[in-house]
């Protein structure tokens, strides 16, 4: 289960949190009592995940790019 810690405390104790996370612990960071982030140990991608990434990248390399024409920034972000 995640240990809950406020954002202010997490900021002050970041080095400790990193050490504990490296050791397998996880933390739920809150701001004004609301969850905003989770600090969890990093994991290596699985063999299946690496294979799926390679398949996707291979398919993307084979696709031709679409000619979308030119547009202005205003047209791109028009509401």
From TrEMBL:
<dbReference type="Pfam" id="PF02604">
    <property type="entry name" value="PhdYeFM_antitox"/>
</dbReference>
<protein>
    <recommendedName>
        <fullName>Antitoxin</fullName>
    </recommendedName>
</protein>
<dbReference type="InterPro" id="IPR006442">
    <property type="entry name" value="Antitoxin_Phd/YefM"/>
</dbReference>
<dbReference type="InterPro" id="IPR036165">
    <property type="entry name" value="YefM-like_sf"/>
</dbReference>
<comment type="function">
    <text>Antitoxin component of a type II toxin-antitoxin (TA) system.</text>
</comment>
<comment type="similarity">
    <text>Belongs to the phD/YefM antitoxin family.</text>
</comment>
């Amino acid at each position: 289960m995640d240990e809950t810690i406020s954002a202010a405390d997490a900021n002050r104790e970041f080095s400790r949190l990193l050490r504990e996370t490296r050791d397998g612990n996880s933390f739920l960071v809150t701001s004004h009592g609301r969850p905003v982030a989770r600090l969890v140990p990093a994991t290596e991608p699985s063999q299946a995940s690496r294979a799926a990434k390679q398949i996707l990248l291979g398919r993307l390399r084979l696709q031709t790019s679409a000619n979308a024409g030119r547009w202005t920034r205003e047209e791109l972000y028009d509401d």
